[in-house]
Amino acid sequence: MKAGVYSEADVAAEIVSFGNFARSLDEIDKNAEHLFHDRLRRIEEMSNSLSPEIKKTLRTHCLKETESELCQSTMIQHGRSKPFGYSGDFQMIDWTYTKHVESPTRRGEMWDRFYHRQVAPLAVCSRKDRFGEQLKLIAKKAGSRITVLNTGSGPGREVLDGAASAGLRPGDLEITCVDADKAAIEYAKRLLGEQWCSSCHFEHKNALRYHPKEQFDLAWSSGLFDYLDERMAAHLLKIMWANVKVGGRLVICNFADTHSTRPWIEWCGDWFLIHRSQYEMQLLAEYAGIVQGEAKISHDVDSLQAVRYLSIEKLA
Q1: What is the pTM of this model?
Q2: Architecture of the domain made up of 121-314
Q3: DSSP-assigned beta bridge partners for residue 314
Q4: Is 289 helix (H, G, I), strand (E, B) or coil?
Q5: Domain spans, the chain
């Protein structure tokens, strides 16, 4: 066997060993956490020499091998079971925001806390913080009520916490929340309550087919682009850009190709996202017809190197 080339049986054996390691942990300190991710990275690297079909089979094997242990966690079990059709549903995102720990067993709570310490959940929380920063930035420039388009709005906590961090009250904002999941909209309405709902207009629509008639100071999308291929992502970006006021901003978030714990979310969470490089994010802007001169385009990545932000200001 050539060095670095592995068989399906080799990877399957490594998965069994990984499952045994997870079950052996009585607590997860920094060293155990480091070993956990090292083992997953090895599984990923070993499987890269195999066909996509075999790799998919091995991922299923890993999920089964770790199910009895990891699915004691309410967080991990919810993400795997996909009760609303996909892993990153509104409930999962809101539990991530609130660092939800309510598993029925001690080991389940251990894995809940492990989940919340990981790069991907922390990066999701940082998106909510970034939304607040964008609201604050827009508020400094706007002379009246701020208008916001929130595409793929999810559980609504971005609005609640983002506005609070920006020092804004319901009367300061007018927000259009677009989501294809009716359950997400109902959840958001309950969370936001009557006062905040008076400032929100909810659209139960597929964002790719939604064309608002008004224009906005801020067009924002935190997690939707992670699930869209290049064609759909460029199409949505074009729609959003068409509805940004002159002097307004468009900001989208997308998991980055530098995200370090991708093997964890895929092999243990059955959670697949489209990760993009800065070059790929720039291409989306170009395909959407957004060009320098008409727009001021900037890129940055969060401190965890996990989420990229494409920020575009519409020039006069």
Answers
A1: 0.95
A2: 3-Layer(aba) Sandwich (3.40)
A3: 295
A4: coil
A5: 1-70, 121-314
